[in-house]
Amino acid sequence: MSTARRGDALLQAPSGFRTLRRSALGLLLAVLTISGCSTAGTAPVAGHLGPSQPVVLRAMPATDAGGALRSAEPATGWFLDEVVYSGSFLDLSGETANTRSVDFHPDGTLLFVVGRDTENVVTYELSTPWDVTTGVAVDSLDLSPVLGARDHPESVAHGLFIRKDDGGLMWVWNRTEILEYTLDEPWRVSSARPTGNRSFAGTVLRGHDIDFRPDGLVLYVDDRNSQAVFQFALAEAWDITTATLEYTLDISDQEEEVRGIEFKPDGTRMFLMDTARRDILEYHLDTPWEIASARFVQALSVAGQHDNPRGITWRTDGQRFYITQASGLPALHQYDLVTR
Questions:
Q1: Can you say how many angstroms the Cα of residue 44 is from the centroid of all Cα atoms in its chain?
Q2: Is the pLDDT of residue 93 over 60?
Q3: Three-state SS annotation for the chain
Q4: What is the model's pLDDT at position 63?
Q5: CA distance 285 to 303
Q6: For residue 203, how many C-alpha atoms fall within 13 Å in the half-sphere facing its CB?
Q7: Looking at the chain, which terminus has fewer C-beta neighbours within 10 angstroms, N or C?
Q8: Residue (of 287, 324, 276, 292) closest to 228 by Cα position
Q9: What CATH number has the domain bearing residue 96?
C-alpha cells in the first residue's frame, strides 16, 4: 500500500477521536513464561489492565480427536494448541460502542472495526504492524444512512470484510443481509459509498460474521440461531447478487452462540468465536474451502480474559490472533501462539 494512496489525512486523527493504548508486559515476558517461568496471573476484567504475568492458555481437544492433534501438527501457526495472553489490547471506547468484527490491511498497518451501537466503521493506523497497542483512530464511515433502510429493519451491523488485493470493496453484514460499499480511495473508509446489497432472509436467521474465499467465488456466513455455517457460491467473483446456497454445516454439537468466523488463507482451517461458551472453535477442512469436509478438532477458552467476546481475526502468518470485547471496555485484545 503506497503512502500516496493513504494520504496525509489518514495519518492524523480527526477531531473528536480518542484512542487509549495499553499493553501489559509484552513479548519479553511471554518468552520468559514459555521458557518455564510461572504462568499464573490475574485474569483481566473489561476496563482494567491485563494480567500481572503472561497467561498460557491450552486448547481442549474434541472427544473424537483421539488426543493425537498436538503430536501430529507442525509448529507453523494457525493452531490453538497453546497461546499466550500478555494483556495487550487497544481501547476502542472512544470511537465505538458494542464493538463487533474487525479486519486488517494485509500488511498489518491498518485496522478496521465495526461499532454496532455507534453504527460505524473506524480505521486505526498501527505504527508497529500487527501490534494493536500502537493503534490510533484516523478515519471512519457512518453506516446509519444505510442500516435499517434495506431488507432488515434493525441496525445490527456485525460482520466486516474488505477485499485484500486492492482495498476497493467492503462488505458489512447486518443480521440477514449483506451491504456492499465501493471505496473510491482504496482502504479509506470515509470514501466508501453503498453500491449493492443482498438479502439472505429465509436462509440466514441471525447471522453475525462473514468471510470470503480469496478469489471472491465463495461467501461464508455464521448463524447462531440456525447453529450453522452457510457456504454460498458466487457465479461472478465478488458479486453478492449472484450468491446461491451451496452447503450448510451443522455445528449444533459444538455451538451455543457463534458470532465470528475466519478461515486460514489456504482454506484448510476454520475458526469460530462462540460468545456464549467464550471459546474459539477450531475446525480442519480435509478439502480446502469445502465446509462439507470440516471436522471439529479443539476449543480454546478465553473466559478468563473476556466476558463478552465477539469478533475474531488473525495475523496473516497465523502466529497471532485478535478478539474484540464488546461490553465493559470495548477493546481489541491480541494473543500469541506458542510455537514448537
A1: 20
A2: yes
A3: CCHHHHCHHHHCCCCCCCCCEECCCCHHHHHHHHHCCCCCCCCCCCCCCCCCCCEEEECEECCCCCCCHHHHCCCCCCCCCEEEECCCEEECCCCCCCEEEEEECCCCCEEEEEECCCCEEEEEEECCCCCHHHEEEEEEEECCCCCCCCCCCCCCEEEEEECCCCCCEEEEEECCEEEEEEECCCCCHHHEEEEEEEECECCECCEEEEEECCCCCEEEEEECCCCEEEEEEECCCCCHHHEEEEEEEECCCCCCCEEEEEECCCCCEEEEEECCCCEEEEEEECCCCCHHHEEEEEEEECCCCCCCEEEEEECCCCCEEEEEECCCCCEEEEEEECCC
A4: 80
A5: 26
A6: 19
A7: C
A8: 292
A9: 2.120.10.30
> How high does pLDDT run on average in the chain?
84
For the purposes of burial, counting CB atoms within 10 Å of the CB of 230, is it exposed (0-12), middle (13-18) or buried (19 or more)?
Answer: buried
> Which three three-digit cell numbers place residue 131?
501490534
Spatial distance between the Cα atoms of 270 and 284, rounded to a whole number of angstroms: 6
Q: Domain range holding 91?
A: 3-337
Rounded distance between C-alpha atoms, residue 240 and residue 170, angstroms:
11
pLDDT at 42 over 50: no
- Which grid coordinates belong to 260? 465470528
Question: Using CA of residue 200, residue 205, residue 208, residue 209, what is the dihedral sign?
Answer: negative
Distance in angstroms (rounded) separating the CA atoms of residues 167 and 164:
6
Whole-structure pTM value: 0.84
Total domains present in the chain: 1
What pLDDT score was predicted for residue 21?
38
Model confidence pLDDT, tens digit, residues 208-251: 999 999 999 999 999 999 999 999 999 999 999 999 999 999 99
Q: How many angstroms separate the Cα of 322 from the Cα of each of 52, 88, 279, 318? A: 20, 10, 13, 11
